Each structure stands twice: as C-alpha cells, then as structure tokens.
Amino acid sequence: MTEARVSTRRHYLMCEPRYFAVEYAINPWMDPTQPVNAEVAVKEWTELADTYRRWGHRVDFVEPVPGLPDMVFAANSGTVVGGRVLGARFRAPQRAPEADHYRRWFVDHGFRDVFMPTRTNEAEGDFTWTGEVLLAGTGFRTDPAAHAEAQEILGVPVVSLQLVDPRYYHLDTALCVLSPGHVAYYPEAFSPGSQQVLRHLFPDAIIATQADAECFALNAVSDGRNVVLPLEATHLADRLIADGYEPTFLDIAELRKAGGGPKCCTLEIRNQVDNSV
Fold first, then answer.
1. Residue 122: what pLDDT?
2. Which residues pair with residue 86 across a beta bridge?
3. pTM score > 0.90 for this model?
4. What are the angstrom distances between the C-alpha of 70 and each of 8, 30, 122, 165, 204?
5. Would 1 be classed as within a structural domain?
6. Quick check: 8 and 225 in contact, CB under 8 A?
C-alpha cells in the first residue's frame, strides 16, 4: 500500500531573474556563446513562485541587483535551520557580492542569529536538511571545513558527502529531500564511500537515472507531498507517483542554461528545529 504523503506549510525566499544572463562559465552547463532570454527566465521563475503560493506556502523576495545575473539562485546564499542563518561565501568571485545582499535581507527582516562563514560555503546548494541531519556536499564548491563550521553555527548534526561528477557540482543537483527521512538521488554523482553512506541512511530512497539527473530532475522542491519538477523529468515523476507524491511539471529550460532549476531558485527558511524538511 502506498504511503500517504502529507504537505507542510513552507516559507521560501526567492529573487526575480530581472538581470539574468550567462556572461561567464563557472559550471559545465554555462555557455556564454549561447543566447539567453531574461524575459523567458522571469516567466519560468514567476510560474515557480506562483506554484508555491497555490500550494499555500509563504514566499518572500529579495530585490535583484544589476550586474549579479546569478542572484536568482537564492538557495546558494543561505542555510536556515531553527531560525539561525548561516550565510554564504562563494567560490567564484563573480558571485561573491550576492552573499551580502542576502545577509542584509535577513538582518532587515528581524533575524537575530545571522552568521557569515569563514570557509567557502555555497549554502543550500551543498547543504540539505533532511529533518534529522544536514547533508553536506563537497568536491567542487563548498570547502569540507565548512561542514564543521555549519554544525557549530546551526547546532545540528552534519553528514559529509563527496561529489565526483562536475556536472553535478552542487549537492542539490544530485539529491532531493522529498519528506522527512526520504530522498531521491543519483548514485553516480557521489564517491563510492558516500554512496555507501546514502544507502545506509536512506534504504528506501528513490534511485534516479542518468536521464533524470541530466534534466535537473533532482533539483526539485518538495513540501512532503507536492513536488515541483522540470518538464522532462517524466521517469522520476512516475517513481514519485508510485510512492504517493504529486508531481507538478514546470519549464526551466532558460534557467537551466546557467545550471539552475527549481531548488536553485528557492531558499527555505526554517524557523524551528523539528522533523520538517
């Protein structure tokens, strides 16, 4: 019998891609020689934000800044657990100024415990809260030492995972938390040891295929029942339906030109430490 899935109300922070462009290449998906349409990117992003609100979630917005074309990828700019905010420190100099704009948003909106990292840390790009532990990716962006720093600042247990495929340069391109204790992931994105860790932690995980990973199906966002996916993620959607989830398909073709998808655009604000994902 399929398990009944339950959605929980979420609080998301997003940033409109008003100045979206691909002007440099800091991941294998970016090609500055290919045309990019910011108007199309805004439409894709708007449909994502509208979807969250239709599901009953709260969505707040950071004002975009000219000259920061990747600021739309809000997930890379903060990790919030129990109302404590750990900001970002980007590896690529092109994105470095984004961190302070997000820091100021949190301070201006009454968050008292806002900490900026001393180690390179690309936030929810590489940090994923499962409801019990913080999964922490490394290999391409986030410094391994940032994992210990996150544990000290956020006060939650951290499990390190090694990424090995440069196409999946952030943890959120290779793994998605669907509900407390339940994830989907693409094993080949991880080192052999990290694959063993994931099998141990999540024996009932949904195992994604190469085709799933390549269309950014794992850069999904779930509220425990509803899951937003790229249009092409039909295989993973079938698996989700079989496990009691309700997928919603969105076009992210323009945003994907910069190596981003639904999760990249979505920073989750968790005000309590509990088993909510």
1. 98
2. 79, 115
3. yes
4. 29, 11, 13, 22, 35
5. no
6. no
Residue 49 in tokens: 């934000």
Residue 50 lies inside a defined structural domain of this protein: yes
| CB-facing half-sphere around the CA of 19: CA atoms within 13 A | 11
- What would the mean pLDDT of 198-207 be, rounded to a whole number? 98
Residue 81 CA to residue 236 CA, distance in Å, equals 28
Domain count, the chain: 1
End-to-end CA distance of the chain, in Å? 23
- CB-based burial label for 13 (10 Å; 0-12, 13-18, 19+): buried
Give me the CATH number covering residue 113: 3.75.10.10
With b for 16 or more beta-carbon neighbours within 10 A and e for fewer, the 152-187 pattern comes to: ebbebebbbbbbebeebbbbbbbbbbbbbbbbbbbb
Show Cβ contacts of residue 241 under 8 Å, excluding neighbours closer than 6 positions: 247
| 201 found inside a domain | yes
Which ranges of 92-242 would DSSP assign to H, the alpha helix? Answer: 98-108, 145-154, 192-201, 210-214, 234-242
By residue range, what is the domain housing residue 138? Answer: 11-268
Whether the CB-CB separation of 65 and 101 falls below 8 Å is answered with yes
Type and span of the H or E element at 254: helix 253-256
List the structure tokens of 225: 């029942």
Contact 19, 45 (CB under 8 A): no
Active-site residue list = 170, 264
Give the model confidence (pLDDT) of 115-150 as tens digits: 999 999 999 999 999 999 999 999 999 999 999 999
Q: Which of 109, 100, 107, 145 is nearest to 126 (CA)?
A: 145
